[in-house]
Amino acid sequence: MSDALSSETALVLFSGGQDSTTCLAWALSRFARVETLGFDYGQRHAIELACRDRLLDGIKALRADWAARLGESHTLSIPTLAAVSETALTRDVAIAMGADGLPNTFVPGRNLVFLTFAAALAYRRGISHIVGGMCETDYSGYPDCRDETIRAMQFALSLGMAKTFELHTPLMWIDKAATWKLAHDLGGDGLVDLIREQSHTCYLGERGAPHDWGYGCGECPACSLRAKGWREFVAGG
């Protein structure tokens, strides 16, 4: 990250999950000011939205310089996304693989819509840098998480708004174990514990008994990835 970027502002797509919290810490270690954006799109695991304030409070308590850099927290409501989606994230149906080879947790167009709204907000606020937790290494096969998709969106958004945007995806080429390690590198045990205790990843919105890796049903694909990554992180520590 150049010295020029360290004086600029970034907008982080902040859902309240493990990945977006790690991305928030990544941005806070690089940019002079960081704003956050969450989306209420009718997701079954909307409890993640309630986790964001606790995570932001925890981030501020971890490091004074991060507290000083944190700016506005935004939430956009886009219920239309759920209205046009028949998926396990927006309907009370069992998680399964679809006939197209994609899991039915795939919400078509979700990241494309998120990035478009994020860019529109960033445009209004004079922000050029947008940070997201998309990952091609340890994911569920979602085509809108691919690096090629993000690069295409960066080009389209910059062209369509006549403004140069840079989309940062610090998790793109790392797995969940490396994501836990990145959190530790950025914020030590304090950040890792905050993510374990306060972030939410479970597709079913389960916040019952805690596991070593945090809260969740322990069975859905999101929980399985998070738990597997945690075990590998601990084993490698």
Automatic annotation (TrEMBL):
It is an enzyme of class 6 (ligase). ATP binds at F14, S15, G16, G17, Q18, D19, S20, T21, T22, C23, L24. The keyword Aminoacyl-tRNA synthetase does not apply. It comes from the Bacteria. The keyword ATP-binding applies. It catalyses: 7-carboxy-7-carbaguanine + NH4(+) + 2 ATP = 7-cyano-7-carbaguanine + 2 AMP + 2 diphosphate + 2 H(+). Pfam families: QueC. Binds 1 zinc ion per subunit. Its cofactor is Zn(2+). SUPFAM superfamilies: Adenine nucleotide alpha hydrolases-like. Pathway: Purine metabolism; 7-cyano-7-deazaguanine biosynthesis. Its EC number is 6.3.4.20. InterPro entries: QueC, Rossmann-like_a/b/a_fold. Zn(2+) binds at C202, C217, C220, C223. Keywords: ATP-binding, Ligase, Metal-binding, Nucleotide-binding, Queuosine biosynthesis, Zinc. PANTHER family: 7-CYANO-7-DEAZAGUANINE SYNTHASE (PTHR42914:SF1). Catalyzes the ATP-dependent conversion of 7-carboxy-7-deazaguanine (CDG) to 7-cyano-7-deazaguanine (preQ(0)). Belongs to the QueC family. This is 7-cyano-7-deazaguanine synthase. The lineage of its organism: Bacteria, Pseudomonadati, Pseudomonadota, Alphaproteobacteria, Hyphomicrobiales.
